[in-house]
Amino acid sequence: MDINRYSPKFKLKQTNLLRLADLTAEEIFEILYAAKSFKKKFRVGENTPILKNKTIALLFGNASTRTRVSFEMGIRQLGGDYLFLPKNETQLSRGESIKDTAVMLGRYGISAIVLRAFNEEQLAQFASFSEIPVINGISEESHPLQVLSDLFTIWENKGRLDNLKIAYIGDGNNVANSLSMGCTTVNMDIAIASPHGYSPAKSIVERGMQYSNVLITDDIAEAVRGADVVYTDVFISMSDEDDERKRAKLARYRVTQEVMQYAKEDAVFMHCMPAHRGEEVSAEVLDGPQSIVYTQAENRLHINKAVLALLVS
Ligand code: CP
Predict the structure, then answer these.
(1) What pLDDT score does 237 carry?
(2) Which atom of ligand 1 lies at the shortest distance from residue 272's CA?
(3) Is pLDDT above 90 for 243?
(4) Mean pLDDT score, 52-72
(5) Is 240 a residue whose pLDDT tops 90?
(6) Using a 6 Å cutoff on CB, does residue 146 contact ligand 1?
(7) Distance from residue 274's CA to the centre of ligand 1 (Å)
(8) Which residue has the CA at smallest separation from atom 7 of ligand 1?
C-alpha cells in the first residue's frame, strides 16, 4: 500500500505500543500522518493542548538523550505534564513485581506510561496489568518509536516508502529487528549485512519475508547495492556487556564513503544515535552531505506526540 494514497482517520485501534509487529501498514501510516501534522504545527510555533491535565510517566531503566528529551518536550508542548521515574529509584529495583507496579501506577491519575529498558516478557506483563496505555521506549528486542521516526524521516526525504530499499549494516540488534518489522510492513525491501552469528532473530526475518524482500548476508556490498537508505547502529548496545569479541567481529562492518558508493547516488545515511565516529561509521559519512541523522533525531519529537495523541484520549 502506498502511504501517499492513504487517507488518515487520525485513529488507532491499539491501546498500547509495544512492538511494530502489532501494527498494520495502515496503523503505521496513521502515526506518520499525525507526526507530519505535529511537525507542521511545531514549525510555526503552534501547539495544541491535547494533553492538558494529563500526566505521562517515563519509567526509564537506562540512559537516554533523545527518547527522554523528545518525550519531555513533546508532552510540555502538548500542554501536559510528565513524571520521570528512574527505574533504579523505584521499588522495581528492589524486587517489587511488575504486576504491583503496573496496577498501582494506574491508580494515581497517570494517563500513559513509557517503559525503557525492559525485556519483551516484562513489557507484555506490564501491559496486561495496566489500565493505562503502555509505550515501549526501547526494549531488549525492539525500538518501535525509533523506527516509526525513521520511516517518517524516509517518507519526508524520499516522498514515498513502498519499493524503496534500506540496507542495515552491523549488529542485528533491537533497532535492526524493528527496522525489519517496520520496513517490510510498509512494503520496503531490507538487506541486513552482519557477521555470522549477529543477524536478527530468524522469527523476525521470516515474518518480514511474508511482506517484502528481506536479504540476510555477511557481504556489505551485496546488501548496500542499489539501496536508497544506508543505516547503522552502535556495535555494543546498552544492554550488552562490553564484548571485545563482538567488537572485533563487527569491526569491518563500518559504513564508510566506500560503502556508500554501492548505494544509489541519491541515497541517504541514517543512524539512530548515539553514534561513534570511526567505529560503526566514519566521521566523513556521519557528518557528510548524505547524512540525515539530525532530522531523524528531531523526528522522534513529532512521532512521540503522534503516538501520545493517538493512544491517550
Ligand atoms: N536513539 C535513542 O533511543 O536515543 P537515546 O538512547 O538517546 O534515547
Answers:
(1) 83
(2) 1
(3) no
(4) 98
(5) no
(6) yes
(7) 7
(8) 65
The three three-digit cell numbers of residue 53, written as one number: 491535565
pLDDT at 284: 98
Total residues found in the chain within this entry: 313
How many angstroms is it from 85 CA to the middle of ligand 1? 17
Ligand 1 centroid from CA 5, angstroms: 32
The CA 35 to ligand 1 mean position distance, Å, reads 18
For residue 112, pLDDT over 90 is answered with yes
For the residues of 132-152, what is the DSSP string, one character each?
S-EEES-BSS--HHHHHHHHH
For the stretch 255-264, pLDDT in tens is: 999 999 999 9
Amino acid letter at 250?
A: L
Q: Can you tell me which atom of ligand 1 is nearest the CA of 138? A: 3
Q: How far apart are CA 71 and CA 39, in angstroms?
A: 14
Q: Which residues carry out catalysis? A: 116, 143, 146, 233, 272, 300
Cα separation, 143 vs 283, whole angstroms: 25
Return the ligand 1 atom nearest residue 238 CA. 6
138 pLDDT band, cuts 50/70/90, is: very high
Instruction: Give, as one character, the DSSP assignment of residue 107.
Output: G
Contacts 24+ apart (CB under 8 A), 207-210: 207/21, 207/180, 207/181, 208/180, 208/181, 208/183, 208/184, 209/184, 210/184
Whether 180 and 216 have beta carbons less than 8 Å apart is answered as no
